[in-house]
Amino acid sequence: MSARKIVLVHPFSGDWERMRSAPFYPLNLIHASTLAGRGHPIEIVDLRREVDWRARLRRAFEEPVLLVGITSMSGTMLASAIEVARFVRGLAPVPLVWGGMHATLMPDQTAADPLVDAVVVADGEGILAEVAERVAHGEPLAGTPGTLARDTTGAVVRGPDATLPDLDELPEPNFELVPVRAYMPHWDGAPTLSLESARGCPRPCTFCYNTALNAGRFRMLSAERTVARVERLVRRHAPGGLYFVDDNFFLDVPRAVAIGEGIARTGVAWQVQGADIPSLARIDDATLATLAGTGLKRISIGIESGSPRIRKRMKKSASVERVKREVARFAKHPIVLYCSFFVGSPTETVEDVRETIELALELQDLNPNFRNSPFYTYLPLPGTEMLDDAVAAGHASPTTLEGWSRLTFDMESAIGGVTWPGALSRAQTRAIYFVSSCVDRKSRDYGLPRLAAALIELYRPIARWRLKHFRLGFMVELLGYRVVHALWMASEALRRRRDGVARRGEVAPALVATQPAA
Length: 518
What we know:
Layout: E1 5-10, H1 15-19, H2 27-36, E2 41-46, H3 53-60, E3 65-71, H4 76-91, E4 96-99, H5 101-105, H6 107-111, E5 118-120, H7 125-136, E6 147-150, E7 156-158, E8 186-187, E9 190-195, E10 198-200, H8 210-213, E11 218-220, H9 223-237, E12 241-244, H10 253-264, E13 269-272, H11 277-281, H12 285-293, E14 296-304, H13 308-314, H14 320-329, E15 336-343, H15 350-366, E16 370-377, H16 385-392, H17 401-404, H18 426-436, H19 450-469, H20 476-499, E17 511-512
């Protein structure tokens, strides 16, 4: 009898995923299956691509299923995960194993939910493999290292901590478990494939999940292994660009340069999701020129706030003046700096927000390659020091999966309307998100439809004026955007139902994750 398969589910993440030409590659599930896939077929169901995910799951259960694994992140993705778990409960009595950021940060609360049979804490490769073997042999999950699971009485049992893997000792993940070409969103006109080369970050930022998830640990894949992976992916799938999703890529500068020089031999451009000002400040101009010469096109940097007071509460070590110096210094190099900001953190006032706006606009003037994120709304992530600040300010921390699923990064307030003296109103938060989305030239980078890009370009001077002068009252353009967005999403849903997913690549069948040849 053939081995029963493991079904891994990537929940829906939010409407912003549908605005891209393709979703990001499901690296979390691919990596988690690395060891478990050696003994069991793996099937990945990605709700970001499925026209009818329920029908897809029904088809998955036409063959024997060992367990269903669900990845989770606080907010919209968690709401989708709950919906999936409820549906699977009605299909078959298979174990529901939860992992991902939210389950790892809130394991006890997650394990208490009746939709959860086991929680995988931290890196999933070895833990999921052990869970799969126990299920396959009819052994209890309670006590499995790296998990919380129910025993025969229904009580939740925490297993001993699992050893975090050395990334260089893990076998190569099987990227071909999904149709790779279907996961290459376009940036600057090039289909871009995401990959990981390190995990964790040692910085103490009070709002960041890493302080709890990785407890300050930083683990790297060697430059040699990283370059070998890049060469294999480029050879097999011919992406136009690579996107490293590491939390802080430049902590080891010589390693970053070695990876860049290896990528340069493939002729593919590359970009980095995670970086901070202190790390970038350690890279001299000659090294920056070298990195640009390897094809480095973009670096995403966490700036977060322009208020010295709020930055201190965030434990951001770089001063506002240092941020300005580094962004200005990068103007000598053809590297786009995508800088993130958010508003609504505990005790933040309108004056603090004005300082953030002033910084973002000044950085735009200092460097023509500067881009800013929309000014996101603070999301009180579980396990973080800033969540404690939010609770002290009046935020009632959710106590269930359902509660955590109601949070969002977008225009709506993530803290449920909790305010403190001098805080932004919810209407102001929504307005800032909208206008900050339009003040730079990022619409040229993401390959938006021509009409949308043209409208944003026309609106850009108005958006900058509104942001600079804090003119965030009644905005007819925001109402217009909501109408257009609703119509666009409806038409996109109809198109997806008509065309299915075939235009983004065929759905991969369940595959055994054998190791690909080098």
